[in-house]
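Predict fold of NAD(P)/FAD-binding protein YdhS; 627 aa.
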Amino acid sequence: MSRTRVCPRVLIVGAGLAGTATAIRLLRFARGPLEILLLERRSDYRSAGVAYHREGNPWDHVFNIQAGRMSVFREDVLDFVRWANSEADRRGWPEPWAELEFAEQGPAPRRIFQDYLIERLAEARREACPGVVLVEADGEAVDMEVRPAGVDVTTCRLSASGLGAGQGPEPTLLRAEHVVLATGLELREPPFAAEVVTHPSFVRNPYSAAGVRKLAALPSEATVAIVGSVLSAYDSAGLLLRQGHTGSIHLISRTGTMFRTYPAGHEHGVLRLPCPKTLLEPYRNREEFLARVRSEWETACSAVARDHPGVDPAVIAERVAKAWEPHLPGVIERIPSSELRGLLDEFSTAIAAFRVGAVEYTMAVIERAMRPCDGPVKLLVGTVERIRPTESGRLAVSVAASGQRHAIEADLVVSNFGREWDYSRVGRPLWRNLLRRGIAVPHERTGRGLEVDGQGTLLGPGGKPAGPISAVGVPREGDELVRNGRTGAFAFNLASIKNQSIAVAAHVVGRLELRGDGLARDVAQFLGGVGNMEEAARGGFEEAVVLEVRRLATRSRREREMLDSRLGDRIRSMEGIPALPKDASRRDRLMRIVANRAAVERLTDVSVTPRQLRRQLGMANAEEPGD
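Predicted 3D structure, encoded as C-alpha cells:
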C-alpha cells in the first residue's frame, strides 16, 4: 500500500469491547492529527465481540452483573444506565425491556450493549480534535513485522473506504506507528468432542447465531447436556427454561462449582482487610499452602461478617477476594511456576465463583429448576471423557465421576465457552506468526496470555519491548494476575478493559508526542529528580493533575479544549520545580506528559470503586445516590 498519510496511524486489531473502548479513549486523548484504524475480522462482532453481539445474545441473555456496573467509562459510573433510559432507540424492543426503567442494581439485556458502544464510539469521533480521524475496516491481521518507523501489518480480506490501493481478497500491507492487539477470546477445541464437532446436535459456541437457533428450536421435552457450570452455562439453561423447557438439563461440571446470586440492592464495594501474612511465607508444597489459604480465608470471612454487618453474607467472599488483590502478587511470587499453573488449572472456576456472582434474573430461574431434587436442571460433578454420535442421531456423553462412569444420551449437547489461554496452542495465523517472530511470548509464570510490561507493551524473548505493539483484554490475563492480583474473569473482563484502555491510549498518544526530539529522556530525568512529587505538588502540580484528570474524562471537545488551556496556564505558572529543561516549550510539554501519567494512575486506581474514585477526583454529581 502506498504511504500518503501525513499523520501517524494507530492500528487496533479487534473491534470488540476492548478495541472499541481503546478507540474511544484514543479519540478523546489525542490533541494532534492521528488516524485510528479499527480492524475487525467479523463484522457482526464490531463494538460487541462474542459476549455482546446481537445475533448470539437473545433478549433473555442479561449481564451477569448489575446494569450500573456496565458503563464503559470507569469515571462515569451511570453512563450506561443513563443511555439505556434516555438515549437508546427502543423501537423493536420486546417486553419487559421496552417499557422498563433501568436501575443501577437491576438487570439489562446483553445485546443492547452493542448499540451503546456504537453510539459512544460515534460520539467520540464527533467530539475528537481536528485531524483526529477514525477508520473502520473489515479484515483479518495475519502477520506483523516491526520496522524502525513502526509496524508492517499483513491483512487479508481488507475492506474499508479511505485506505487507498490494495483493498480486496489479496493480502494487503498496512503500516502503523503503533499497533494495539484487542483480539478477544480464543476458542479451545475440546478433545472429548472430536467425533461430534460438526454434528447437528452439538453446539460448540452457544453465543453464535447458529447455536442460539438450535437452542430456540429444541423441543421442550428434549434432553440437554451442558458441559460446564460457569455463568455462560446458565445463559443456555436459562434460555431453554424461559421458553418452557421441561426435559432434563444436565449441567456437567468438573468441580461442581455453582455461582452466587447477588442480593437485591447489591452495590460493589471495596474493603480494607489485613494482609494474609501467612501466605507470604515460603512455598513448601500444595497441601501445606492450601491449608494456609483455607485458614486465612476463614479468618478473613469471619472478620468481614463480624466487623462489617452491612455486607450481605452472599457477597462476603467477593469482598474478601477483592481485598486480597493488592497482596496476591507477593503471594504468587513465592509459588514455583509449575505449581502456580497447576493451582490455576485446578481452582480457576472456584476462584471465579468467589470473585463474582450473577443477577437474580439469571439465577432465579436456574435455582427454581434445581428444586426439588427431581427438577429439570441437574448438576453432575465429573469430567466429560467422550461425546460420540449414536445410531438414533442423539449424542452419548460419557462422564467420569468419583471412580464411576455416567452415560447421558442427549438430544443436544452444548459445550460451554472453553477458551484457549495458552497462546502457543492458538491456531490463528496472527498468533502463530507473532510467536514465530518473537514479537509475542506466552506468559511464562502462568501459561495464560502473553508477556507484557506495566504499560501493556508486548515483550520479546529477552524481556524487552518487541516493538510499538500493545495488548488490551484477554492477552494480558497472566500479567494481570501476577502484577495486579486480578483473579478469575476479572483478569480480562470489562473492569480490567476499562483501565487498560485508558492506560494504553494515554501511553500511545504520549509516545507519539515524544517522537524524535529527545523529550523522552527529559521525562525520565525529571521523574528521577523529583522522586515522590512532593516538590512538584508545592509548585502547583496537584492542580495540574486534577485538570488533566478532568480533560481525560471529558466527552465534549469544547470542554476538553478549555481544560487544556487552563492546564497550560497552570503549568506555565509553576515555579521552584527542579530538573526542568530551560527551554519553555520543552518544559511545558514535559510537565504535560508528567501530569498525564499521574492522571492516568488516578483514573485507573483499583483500590477504590468507580463511585469512590469520582468522589476523590471531585467529579461526583447529584444524580448518583450517596454522593
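The mean pLDDT is 89.
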